[in-house]
Amino acid sequence: MGLKGDQGTSRAMNRRLVLNLLRANGPLSRAEMAGITGLSPATLTFVVSDLLAENVLIEGKSTIGAAGRRPVPVEINYGSRLAVGLKLMVGSIDCVLTDLATTTLHATRIEVADQSPESMVAGCVDAVAYLSKFAPQGAQITGVGVAMPGIVQAGICHRSFRFGWSDVPIASMIAERLHVPVWVDDDINAFALAQQLFGLGRHHRTVGALAIGVGISCAAIIDGNVHHGAHGSAGKLGHITFDPQGPLCECGRAGCLQAMFSEPAMVEEWRTLTGNPGAVRQDLLAAAEVGDAAAIDLLGRAGAGIGQTLAAFCNIVDPELIVVGGEAVSFGDFLFDPMRRTLAKHCTWTPPKVEPHWADDSWARGAAALATQQLFDFEASDGAMRALPV
Ligand SMILES: [Zn+2]
After folding, report:
1. How far is residue 325's CA from residue 337's CA, in Å, rounded to a whole number?
2. How far is the CA of 211 from the centre of ligand 1 (A)?
3. What is the CATH number of domain 81-193+363-375?
4. Distance 252 CA to ligand 1 centre (A)
5. One pLDDT digit (tens) per residue for the chain, 390 residues
6. Alpha-carbon distances of 331 from 6, 12, 72, 302, 360, rounded to whole Å
7. CA 360–ligand 1 middle distance (angstroms)
8. How far is the CA of 306 from the centre of ligand 1 (A)?
9. 244 CA to middle of ligand 1, Å?
10. Distance from the CA of 316 to the center of ligand 1, in angstroms?
11. What are the helix (H) ranges across the chain?
């Protein structure tokens, strides 16, 4: 498994090694962990004792097996620390309070007056104050993760087309008000991280995390790490030109993939086709479900269009799996079957599986993962979860 450790490693790296091993595998005994990591029993006992004392780990119950009493397993105490996840959107913020596994303890949505940084910061502060009321006694909020549409690097949003932001130090603006650590990332990267930590990506090394919502994005998880790129602008699948004669995109270019096939673009086309300006996503889906040829054709063209562009992504990244989230997931196989067919047609080699994995709180839980990640230090450790010499 490539998990051999080095006995001269630092305490911090050994902690990460143990935590990530338990995150990926569930409860293990000390002897099992020593066997997998290559850490000496003495080192392992030391690390585990430390984490038990901090309440990050808890001991399970020993069980009687065929070979007699089994050693006591230890597991991560996911409820010992909490995170807040905030997904910034036009007009509102989706908010969740989660445990370390990004399991939702409480979720809500708050309205914001506008997309100015000041309004968003005020909304975030209100959200954390509200959610903290739902924290179980004794559990502390260890950090706040913020997901937003934009090019984000080191807590600064260099550009958000949707919000009209340039070089906004959003993480420090929020942290100054809250006095807890704040991490900010593009929403697709947050979704990808959540998938990699606790979702379908957990047992894969190379994954595409595709989201089809207000925009279209696809983050690449390569060797277990979310790929951010040189400027934090990786993953912008939706801004690949699909049709130079196509409609204007929020980025100012014409015919970007997401200008044609984002969820709002599909719904807008359905409104035009039906002459019903009030139609919503559910109306389009309902029409497809009763066999409306125009609705099925619309979703089929969107699926095929996204699949064609996604094939280019696959030819570069070669993922084992594409996990799909975003509001358009509700269109199901009306969207995904044409996408899979086009992918198979245009991929140079074996097309990856395409698996939807989405719930209403997925965006915000992805944001919370930005904060919980810090405990596991998932991206700072190397993808093979090896202990490194310092
Ligand atoms: Zn664009």
Report:
1. 15
2. 15
3. 3.30.420.40
4. 6
5. 444 444 445 788 888 889 989 988 889 999 999 999 999 999 899 999 999 998 999 998 766 665 666 788 999 999 999 999 999 999 999 999 999 999 999 999 999 999 999 999 999 999 999 999 999 988 889 899 999 999 999 999 999 999 999 999 999 999 999 989 999 999 999 999 999 988 898 889 999 999 999 999 999 999 989 999 999 999 999 999 999 999 999 999 999 999 999 999 999 999 999 999 999 999 999 999 999 999 999 999 999 999 999 999 999 999 999 999 999 999 999 999 999 999 999 999 999 999 999 988 999 999 999 999 888 774 443 332 333 332
6. 49, 45, 46, 11, 14
7. 25
8. 14
9. 11
10. 20
11. 11-25, 30-37, 41-53, 117-131, 170-178, 187-198, 257-261, 263-274, 281-289, 293-317, 333-346, 362-376
Question: What distance in angstroms lies between residue 318's CA and the mean position of ligand 1's atoms?
Answer: 24
Q: How remote is the CA of residue 245 from the centroid of ligand 1, in Å?
A: 13
CA 116 – ligand 1 centroid, Å: 21
Q: How far is the CA of 134 from the centre of ligand 1 (A)?
A: 39
The domain limits of the chain are: 11-77, 81-193+363-375, 200-356
Question: Yes or no: is domain 11-77 CATH 2.60.120.260?
Answer: no
* Fold entry, domain 200-356: Nucleotidyltransferase; domain 5 (3.30.420)
What's the rounded Cα separation, in Å, for the pair 338 and 302?
Answer: 8
- CA 373 to CA 289: how far, in whole Å? 40
pTM exceeds cut of 0.70: yes
Tell me which residue has tokens 């984002």. 262
Check if 11-77 and 81-193+363-375 are the same fold: no
